[in-house]
Amino acid sequence: MDSLWVDLGILLFVAGAGAFAGWVARWVFVGGVGGSEKAPPGPEQLRQVGEILSHLQQLAGRVAADVGQHTHRVETISEQLHSADKPAPDVVVRAIGQLLEANTQMQQKLAAAEQQLQEQAKQIEAHITAARTDALTGLANRRAFDEELARRHAEFQRLKKTFSVIMVDVDHFKKFNDTYGHQAGDEVLRQVARILRDHSRAMDLVARYGGEEFALICPAASADVLKEHAERLRQAIEAMLLDFEGKKIRVTASFGLAHLLPGEEANKLVERADQALYASKQAGRNCVHWHDGQRILPYQATQPTQTTKSNPSADPSSNTYPVPCQEMGKPLAANQLVNPARKEIPSDQALLPQPLESFHSRSDFCVILGRRLAEWRRTRRPLSVLLLQVDNYLELAAKYGLQAAQLTLRATSQFLQAAVRQMDVIAQYDNSTFALLLPEASLKNVADIAERLREAICRCKLPLGSCWERITVSIGAAEVTLTDDLQRLLERCEEALEQARSSGGNRVCVHTGQKAELVEASVES
Q1: Model confidence over 435-445: pLDDT tens digits?
Q2: What pLDDT score was predicted for residue 412?
Q3: pTM of the full predicted structure?
Q4: Catalytic residue of the set 212, 228, 491, 498
Q5: Is 119 a catalytic residue?
Q6: What string of H, E and C letters represents the secondary structure of 310-341?
Q7: How many Å apart are CA 260 and CA 258, to the nearest integer?
Q8: What are the angstrom distances between the C-alpha of 416 and each of 126, 388, 442?
């Protein structure tokens, strides 16, 4: 029986190594985890992937050779046992010892091969990250932008969560390069990238689209909010004074944006944003235009937008204004909570808290999940994903102010950090939603974890204004199945989360693969 299990393990390992190699090739030559099309790989990428595939081939070859030796040894011992009608007890004992020794050696070799395979997986993860990152600016690259665009569009088709695209182009960049040199041009691109990244939310994807052009994908924000955001970004770039080799250099940028329309394809959205960008350049550059679906209009501020040149992000009216992290259990001062003149917070201005060091962005979470799915196909060890959304975030924002609502996210994040294991992954998924990746957790395990989390959080009350407000959350979860790819797994989690929310909130729902089922609450809500 031990021999049977060892042989089965060998078979699964060799098959897994082959599938792993196939996944590497598919990722490089066909597309990323989302399956989007991509440009042909360059020579350096081909060389790196060739080395990985070569190592995998050598590893599989060594395991295959070990398999042959192991099989031959087992057959020899078996022939010795069958050569005599009634082998002596000492012969049987010796044969059993030899079989156990052979199996032990084979298991050790498989363990060593498994370790090498895990090291290759880490290398591939590093290559995936590098392949989605622009080397000059550190932003996401065009490939990552295309993948996120496809994910957001699919999400809109399922859940009607809309998003916008902002296109940005550095003005007169060729002339700038000719005047100051390419090193100065590179520094300009790095500084513009920094401003775009630092002034955007954690849920936004900021990418270098190509050359001196950048692109942003901004979910959960209306066209009006995004127009103001683009204008603030434009002013921040204009206010930047670049010191390069003793020269004080100013740069400007042109902006174009478009909001996704019902029934619109993703590429059409980008095309409209690009047309708006072209209109900005035709209008003299250093301005913002937006495409409403019918026509292209210039941005006109309803009231003057003032920024501080030394720190443009310090504008209190900005929807990217950073909120200080508050200590858990310490009441906020009254002047930190409520702006009496502002009783309503539009839903599209809801923000995430400042990213915590241990929290990943949604884009990074998808990359990690894609790698874990590839590992799962090889090992079939349990793997689950959980989405947790704060129920009353917008109501608290309208009642007490944005900082108070964000405090609820901070409090929720503390519960998550206290509950997860070292192997788990936490991300800021979208708006007031967190995502957890839970290796080694089956659907039943994750349902128990989710219910304990929900129970602990709903017992928490925060001092807001003169009241104590309770936090409640809705949770959706799913375990990986044979039919899942990255998109399908997230779709099932989102369907479960939506079921929990539509059932009144403060509920847990799991997706079994066929349907979303509510988990019976263990405490009164």
Answers
A1: 999 999 999 99
A2: 86
A3: 0.51
A4: 212
A5: no
A6: CCHHHCCCCCCCCCCCCCCCCCCCHHHCCCCC
A7: 7
A8: 27, 10, 18
